[in-house]
Amino acid sequence: MVKAARHSALALGLCCVGLLSGCGFQPLYAGPGFSALPGLTIEAEDGRIGYLVEDALRDTLGSGRSPYHAVLETDFRESAIGLSATGRARRFSGEIRVDYTLTGPDGFEHSGRVSEPVFYDAPSDPYSLIAARSAAEERAADRVAEQLAQEFATVLQRAALGLEP
After folding, report:
1. pLDDT digits (tens, 9 = 90+) for 49-80
2. Which of 60, 66, 85, 116 could hold 143 in an S-S bridge, CB 3.0 to 4.6 Å?
3. Rounded distance, CA 102 to CA 104, Å?
4. How far apart are CA 145 and CA 149, in angstroms?
5. Residue 79's beta-bridge partner residues?
6. Is the distance from CB of 119 to CB of 89 less than 8 angstroms?
7. Does residue 39 contact residue 149 with C-beta atoms inside 8 Å?
8. All residues at 6 or more sequence positions from 120 whose CB lies less than 8 Å from its CB, including other chains
9. Which three-class secondary structure state does DSSP give residue 86?
10. Per-residue burial over 46-83, b = 16 or more CB atoms within 10 Å of its CB, e = otherwise
11. How do residues 1-14 score in pLDDT, each as one tens digit?
């Protein structure tokens, strides 16, 4: 009974793969957009958040030679969202916003914005609070870098197909 269910699931999976290839489906990371991104030249603002986003984006895209250039303007805003009985902030929310301009050959230019919210608890120890905030910034920078890579690949793939970005 279990063996038959496994075979049915495998057959269904193979059938779905066949249908996707028949309709022209192509994974984003296999298209012309993403293949032009490794080695992208990145220019980010000075400061911790700019550095974190730039570093995470380099890690996401990998090395290579790209004719494209990205200019990133980063902003991190933070606010207290949970207060203790003594009025001390116990939980914080933050958001990294990145305004970007992607330029390339033949006068290609595209601008946009991505953002990522992040939340963290405030421990009572001041050093722990600094560590918690730093870890939250790093998590948000990693997620923003993934969003940027997907956004860049989508824009370049649409441009390669002659569609409006």
Report:
1. 999 999 999 888 887 788 889 999 999 999 88
2. 116
3. 7
4. 6
5. 93
6. no
7. no
8. 91, 92, 94, 132, 133, 135, 136
9. coil
10. eeebbebbbbbbeebbeeeebebebebebebeeeeeee
11. 555 555 565 555 55
